[in-house]
Protein: histidine kinase
Organism: Planotetraspora thailandica
Amino acid sequence: MTPVPHLHSIRARYTTIATALSLIVAVMIGLSLDLAVRYKVQDDSFFEAERAAGLWSAAVRNGALPNPIPTSTSADLVQLVDIHGRVVASSPQAANQPPVSTHRPPPGDRLNKLTECSRDRCLILMANRVTPAADSPVVYAGMAEPSILATHRLEYLIAAGALMIVILAAWTTWWAVGRTLLPVAAIRARIAEITVSDLSLRVPMPPGEDEIALLASTANRTLERLEEAVEQQRQFASTASHELRTPLTGLRAQLEEALLYPDSVDVRGSVHNALSACDRLEAIVNDLLLAARLRAADPEPHEPVELGALVRQEAAQVHAVPVDVRAPFHVWVHGSRIQLMRVIDNLLSNAQRHAESRVTVSVERADGQAVVAVVDDGAGIAPADRQRVFERFTRLEEGRRRDSGGSGLGLAISLDITRAHRGTLRIEDSPRGARFVLRLPLLNDDHVAGDAPAADIADGVPNATT
């Protein structure tokens, strides 16, 4: 059996609304039609009665009224009644009958419409006073009320037609909405089959380019992005587990060795090595937490940030190799100061690990963007690896050799922060070493004119070597 549709169903709601509207329209049209038909039939009946009354009234004035009075129209009831209420002449249909009405039109209004009803029927009459004289006879002409007016057949017929229209409208709406929603049911059934363990399924695409087809297309694109994100999360979890397992394994081995061979193991060296492993674990965990917070779109407060000052501040913290800084004043961007400090720090730390003798940092304006370039004079990065270094836990052989304690998350985190600030972070060609270029949208000067320090008002371009 087909289940009874619940009113929460779109199909049932639309059908109910369409049925109610069609019922209202059908009732209004039916009432108007009933009134129009009744008025037309009644008006035609009075018109015929008026013609007959006028004809025989003129005949009475001319002294040429036949008896019986012949009739050739629907107004077949004709009587001539004198002042005493006696029927002087009549048509065959009104012969041997009492006067059809006792109403006498006044001299000033000689033609009156009448509806006389008895126990078994109603008559539509026109009363015509022959002359204005006090003793003037009256001609009555009319007919029995048509059955369409005397009964409710017209209302029954209109109601039956209205009911058929309402039923047809309801069925048509039910069928049309059901046919329209067929692709939605297929999409819902397919989505119900999709689980986190299997995101390869896609919803069926209906033909055409209507809203449902656009919905299916959007759902498929969303599923593709979701599948890609889940796969990235799986790879991330797998890689993170591997990266965490390596220092944990080394830490466990050192501790077990210290317990098994207490006399032959340098306890101080073992503790020092264990602390180094703990430091690496802490760095990895902190980077993982930061990466997770960035992925979860955990909002950081944004504010106007003077990028040149930020670069000079971070460059002053680097002491491994000299850092040449060329950063003009008054280069403002809008963002999280803490996160942008992390990006600059990551780029400088990466450059100083690979530099042979010097790191160069420049800040400039170009095409409505603030551009920060960090260049080292090391071996550089091969073009084939320039995208790969921004992936999580990616550490090139050169990086492992120079710093075995890194987490491999610094550049990936920097890229996520940059994208969150609507910027870009790329590795560009350089005559020597690696050139990391950070681009961020410039903040309009009108937004920061009141916030700029007095020292920054002059458009100077400081050069510093740290």
User: Anything to note?
Assistant: The chain has three domains: 10-153, 211-295, 303-465. Confidence is low (pLDDT under 50) at residues 449-461. Residues 10-153 form a domain with the Beta-Lactamase fold (CATH 3.30.450). DSSP finds ten helices and 13 strands in the chain.
